[in-house]
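so the lab meeting is tmrw and i was supposed to have these ready like two days ago... anyway. pasting both below. for each one the top line is the aa sequence and the line under it is the structure tokens. i havent really looked at them closely yet so no promises
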Amino acid sequence: MTNFDVKDRAMADRGRTRILWADDQMPVVRGIRERFAREKPLEGLRLAACLHVTSETANLARTLAAGGARVRLCASNPLSTQDEVAASLAVHDGIEVFAIKGEDNDTYYRHILQALEAAPQLTMDDGADLVSVLHSRKRDLLPGIIGGTEETTTGVIRLTSMAREGVLAYPIVAVNDAMTKHFFDNRYGTGQSTLDGIIRATNLLIAGLKVVVAGYGWCGRGVALRARGMGAHVIVTEIDPVKALEAVLDGYQVLPMDDAARTGDIFVTLSGNKHVLDRRHFEVMKDGAVLSNSGHFNVEINIPALEGLASGRKQRLRDYVDQYTLPSGRRLNLLGEGRLINLAAAEGHPAAVMDMSFANQALSAEYLVKEGKDLKRQVYPVPIEIDREIARLKLQTMGVRIDTLSDDQQTYLSSWSEGT
């Protein structure tokens, strides 16, 4: 009997159909799974993963298991779990899953500890909570770990800080920074799924509204692009002058949040920082403003400050919409409890884009098994050879062919003697 904690194992068959539907859109991961099943590059290894438990993640877990790993999986966000998918992984695939949608904070961390009970040799994280628990509460397990991977910007920031301070105990590959991840997953995946989550939660017409995008990294670029495509007037806020300049040249209005707060209809935070929307912003927002987050943690919106301003005048209007009434009578609508709206109210990124992200995860795990013992306790990029191979495989599955260099061209590019 597989060790697991899911909402209802009777949901497993329905979850299976969702997993297989996603698998049809993930040909690169499927090809890696077929090779892993033959070669068993992860044979006998214990792997703990703290990821969003979705149908796409399920196909990554199945791939790792096919490669010979014993996989324990927990959720990286209390609202992102698809319960039927968790049940299917436990019942049909023998994956040890500990995830329930809507779990409270104590259950969330209990599930992380359960994922670590098998003393993993590899870790996979989305936000670095698993690594944080390892370093703070389960340090006895650190000597046995070969390496790990990190899926998202927030996690890479945390892990880079740990490495800089000399406290990171094993090497981590920053999957988030692979070109085949952030160029596509962060931009096109986050862009589409964030708007999907906002619309599912509110049923608002986006056209004609002022959408404020906080942060113009790859995720912010994607949301701004999709919002403009749906007819919104997009305002970008930034702290980085280079990114702010890029947003201006991309045709967006750029304002400080203190100014944008007065005019926005929908706010989307994607900064990776805390209190991007704060008390002073709530105090000047227009009646009916919508607040949402597509950054990793629910700290980008200062929810305690919002609760304090409303003094308990809060009501659930729709699934994933909590309305706070301020003393002035103005109403502010918080979506998905300030958590990732694309996973809280929708289904996360399309499988076709997660195909590349999770191909990076699987191949980086294989890389760590081969090279991890020789790596320093630092954060490493995905090897460029893996990144390019994933792009090549993705193009191949799409039926797209590209040019190759001739011998003469290769010689020209590698020499310095030819000029004008």
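ok protien two:
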Amino acid sequence: MQTTARQHRAVAAYADPASVLRAANGSAPRWLADSAGRLVLARKPDGWHFCPDGAVRMAQFTAAQVARLGWSPAAQSGWEEGAWRNDHRYNDPPGGCDIALPQNAPPENA
């Protein structure tokens, strides 16, 4: 993807989302600190797919990149708490993003 973006700068770009998806130590934990330092459940139990807060992080990153390139206006605030958070796909597996469940508790050392 990086090579394609370099070869087609006018129509393609690449931005590495690692900065918003990884912890300070380089790991990719389920729980990550938000901009206020609060832990949010970013990933489902498989450690890969996003819970709503992880989707917010990725969407904010992507929107900022495309706005910086002038390909889109900046995202308007407020969408982060929209009804999309209740989409059934965030409940697959059932309860995987439910922070009230013990199996989804943040790690003790977080």
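from a quick look at the 2nd one: The chain has a mean pLDDT of 93. The CA atoms of residues 48 and 57 lie 14 Å apart. will dig more after coffe
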